[in-house]
Amino acid sequence: MVDLLLELFRQNMYFVTLWTALLLINGYFAMEPVIIVHGGAGDIPQSRVKGKFDGVKVAVIAGHKVLLQGGSALDAVEAAVVSMEEDENFNAGYGSVLNLRGEVAMEASIMRGEDLNSGAVTLVKEFRNPISIAHKVLTDSPHSFLGGEGAKLFALEKGFSTVPPESLISENAKNALEEFLQHGEFGRTEIGVKNEGGVGTVGAVAIDKHGHIAVATSTGGMSGKAVGRIGDTPLIGSGTYADDNVGGVSTTGHGESILKYCLAHSIIKLMENGSDANTATKEAVTGMTNRLNNTAGAITLSKNGDVGIYFSSTRMSWAYIKENKLFYGIEHNEVIADDYAP
Ligand code: GLY
Question: Catalyses which reaction (predicted)?
Answer without folding.
Answer: L-asparagine + H2O = L-aspartate + NH4(+); Cleavage of a beta-linked Asp residue from the N-terminus of a polypeptide
